[in-house]
Amino acid sequence: MTSNNYPIIIVGASITAISFIRTMREHGDKRRILLVHGEDRLPYKRTKINKNMVRGFDKDDFRLADQTWYDENEIDLIMDRVIHITASEKLIHTKSGQIYSYEKLLLATGVAPVVPVINGIDRKDIHSVQNANDVERLLEECKEQKRFLIIGGGVEGIETADQLVRKGKQVTVANRMRYPLQKLFPDVLAKELEYKMKAKGVQLFDGVSVASVNVQADGSYKLQLKGETLFFDVIVACAGATPNIDLARKTGLKTERGILVNEYLETSDQDILAGGDVAQHARGVVTGLWHAAEHQGKLAALNVLGKKEAHTLPPYRLKTEVFDLYMFSAAYDEVIPGRDLAVEEKHGDIHRIMYYQDDKLKASVFVNDGDRAKTYQKALFEAWDKAKIEAELPLPPKLQFSFMG
Q1: 35 beta partners
Q2: Per-residue pLDDT tens over the stretch 174-209
Q3: Which domains does the chain have, with CATH numbers?
Q4: Which of 30, 231, 267, 268 has the maximal Cβ count within 10 Å?
């Protein structure tokens, strides 16, 4: 039975929220929790959505737990949106007109897609793939369309391109960077992806932005990229995401790019915590990774339980399987050229670069060694030295050389 007074309220049904709940229950805490979810289905793994456009998905696919789990764990899950927080009175106000009180509040509101302003087209006509409703709309409205322009060469854009190619669509990617996934991989690996994409018929434009289009009589879009005149039926924005900080800012919490938190996930209000993609950590870091968000949910729960554990920004990995490549990147953004030693190895279709600082593994990137991804993650967490890497993660010595990254 739903009450209006809760010891704990969570806003946003992300993996951060689910991890928080699991940790609380694993430690024997039975306090009832209100989970406010702004979508029309049970909380789900959002990263699965745009990766499954070919096969499609049902409303309950990729759910993080079934309704029984919420009932058994005494979670009141409501499909509503929080529009205001009165922190001085510890109240949340929802779109449906409900008011709930809390003792502790966790904000796990995630991110919103960046939809660029393009002259000649209304922003509502630009598609995105941030959540399930976005992808369902794209699949339904554009199932007969053939020519797709994807703006952005990051993970979301490349995964969407891969799925659309598999669906038989003509795909063009407009990327501000020189190579796809360039922020996550060194040029030598990004070039492998570029080659694979072109082999599948993807047209790539690097170092460009889309400023304007002309709508044709048939509803298609005409634009110029690097001197070429191109026509498209659909434009999909995969130009990044921005933390959903509006609610926190209106509440009076300290925000910059994200909601500012300390090492215990506490905001500027001691009774409000924030975690996942919306939280901004030391040095301005917003993690943006699934396992990082999951970890933060655990730490937030330990805080509420009085068992504080500091957040240390561990090197969680990103992996994606696109264009017949398994791609893995962990802590590559931490690499400093000229300081960190890079050991590059190739054997067959496996190609990896391991970065060391003072003989300890600092970062790792590779393609096509997915069966051992968890071992690479363990090596990074434990900062293995080169000798242990050679013993525990060997590659046949077909080609191996070292250089300063």
Answers
A1: 10, 77
A2: 999 999 999 999 999 999 999 999 999 999 999 999
A3: 5-112+241-304 (3.50.50.60), 115-237 (3.50.50.60), 331-400 (3.30.390)
A4: 267
